[in-house]
Amino acid sequence: MTEPVVTLNEAKEALRILHDDQDALIQGFLDAAIEEALCLADGLDRETLTAETLPPTVRTAILLHVIQIFDQADGQTPPGSVALASRHRDWSA
Q1: Which of 27, 33, 67, 93 is most exposed, with the fewest beta carbons within 10 Å of its own?
Q2: Structure pTM?
């Protein structure tokens, strides 16, 4: 995974933010949300994952998590994000 699977602009659109003042903060939240979602969706191959191959449920989980962190900053992964990303979990281990 060399390109971001969800971009800063997509996260800002989900947050309905038009200014650039909080880009660094939002990018940090986005990075954390992507990492959390991909840990939960451990059945996905990170090496070949792209924005185009990212399942819509995982994309939604990432954006929900960014919104949750931005709005509440309580450090908790939203239950909806867990449910969506876990659909791609590798349960064979």
Answers
A1: 93
A2: 0.78
Whether the predicted pLDDT of 26 surpasses 70: yes
Q: How many CB atoms within 10 Å of residue 3?
A: 9
Tokens of 58: 């995982």
R_g of the chain, CA atoms, integer Å:
13
Q: For residues 18-46, b (16+ Cβ closer than 10 Å) or e, as one string? A: eeeeeeeebbebbebbbebbbebbeebee
Q: For 53-70, write each residue's pLDDT tens digit.
A: 999 999 999 999 899 888
Torsion, Cα 65 71 74 76, to 10 degrees, reads: -20
